[in-house]
Amino acid sequence: MEHRKKTLVLFDVDGTLTQSRLPVTEEMEQLLVKLREKVHVGLVGGSDLKKISEQMVHGTDETYIERLANSYDYIFSENGLLSYGHGKLIEKRSIIDQLGEKNLQRLINFSLCYLSKLELPCKRGTFIEFRTGMINISPIGRSCSQAERLQFVEYDREHGIRKTMVEALNQEFGPQFGLTFAIGGQISIDCFPIGWDKTYCLRFVEDKFEKIYFVGDKTDPGGNDHEIYADSRTIGHSVKNYHETIKLIDDLFLTN
């Protein structure tokens, strides 16, 4: 693949390459293989490595993670806090080291207290998920079914559950704690140190390519794709679903 252009195309995963938390389709897989023959391809997601692996290569054990790391030029999980390039680990950073245990517990305790007062159509389990580079907060709980997930999406769209919680988190912690809060995926909020949004991954690639494209679905202010979409180092493209991503790839890279 040495003939490829010095162009990198970075994709968000959930809602961009796949339906939220569902596996990638065969059509998309084949399209990404064709795309990688022309340009370099990377994934940048807020999810941890196992979730990305489950969606993109249909498994989570070490064999599948190795396959994932070798199927794309770059894998940036948790916004790049756990990064792979050409099948090799680049960097791994922890939110504990950045925040310290005391502040981390304060964030978790505040979030659990806030969630305990919410009344939703339903609540399930795993409201707080600790990841390497961030804390993920889900008002409904990440163990909800697909039907319950979609029900929450509609309820959140009408009532602004996550938007209001982000405002409360910003008021409680804000810049003095060095934290950013962003709406992520369909059911959660990502909490991470300032600067640890998806632009974090650009430090590993910005000097290696003439052009860097980014494609994502949560590109509006407050969404977890916004910063990298709007960054001057990227050519940002916003999509509503993976069908639009397929058309975009074809129009930009494969029809010429």
UniProtKB/TrEMBL annotation:
Binding site for Mg(2+): D12, D14, D217, Y229, D231, T234
Compartment(s): Cytoplasm
Gene Ontology CC annotations of this record: cytosol
Signal peptide location: none
Catalytic residues of the enzyme: D12, D14
Class in the EC hierarchy, top level: isomerase
The enzyme's E.C. designation: 5.4.2.8
The protein's annotated pathway: Nucleotide-sugar biosynthesis; GDP-alpha-D-mannose biosynthesis; alpha-D-mannose 1-phosphate from D-fructose 6-phosphate: step 2/2
Top-level taxon in the UniProt lineage: Eukaryota
Gene3D superfamilies: 3.30.1240.20, HAD superfamily/HAD-like
Family: Belongs to the eukaryotic PMM family.
Quaternary structure, from the entry: Homodimer.
Name this polypeptide is given: Phosphomannomutase
Upper classification of the organism: Eukaryota, Metazoa, Ecdysozoa, Arthropoda, Chelicerata
